[in-house]
Amino acid sequence: MAARNLEKAAIAEEEIRELEPGVSSEVRELDLASLEGVAAFCESVLSSLDHIDLLVNNAGVMAIPERRTVDGFEMQFGTNHLGHFALTATLLPLLVNTPESRVVTVTSTARHLGRPVDPSNPHLEGSYGPWKAYGQSKLANLHFAVGLELRFRAAGALTASLVAHPGLSNTDLQANTAREGGGQASGHAARSVGMSATDGALPQLRAATDPQAAGGELYAPRFGNNGAPVRRPLFGRSRNERVIDTLFEVSERETGVALDVPSAMRG
Question: Does residue 219 carry a catalytic annotation?
């Protein structure tokens, strides 16, 4: 279990052990808003594990006031996308050399509000808006998942990249947005009509575990933001390879981390 807040992670780990008394688990610190923190986490994993069956890129911040990561990235793009990009790229050797492994990246319906990343201004300097930045980061999550699958297939890797979104779920993500001034409406909607955190996790879990799920697929609630987890189609700009290639170029430039599937397979 990778977590920034180790106290919350310890509580979650205890809840898991109560449900599954024989489970083997371990919590490791990971702050996706710090490239140094990502590198340290990956070093500990690469030195202690010989394979990874499943990586779920699930961390996120939503619609917060403008601020920067320790590396100077816009916080939402830096945490929601660039941190996951560096994490996935660095752990690739353990993923691509594990047959039938999966990477599941979590997006949001807010991706429809987002625009593709502008290479000349990926951090929205001078044009920041809380929801604008969140939409950009969530569209980047989708493009990253689709682009990663394209790269897996081109290299002949046996790893699959899928994408999922939880719909409107009543979690602390919504509450934190309200506390940060991103608007009370989101938190009120989550409390009144949102799904439980357990139900909201189901699309990610289906993408991660369904034997019939395939790379490049999106799993989401049946009715957009509510309902059972189902496979949903991806059209249009979701699969724009020019935009996806630009995102990967910007991501490698900003993080200094190359995502090279063939090299990872050799490694």
Answer: no
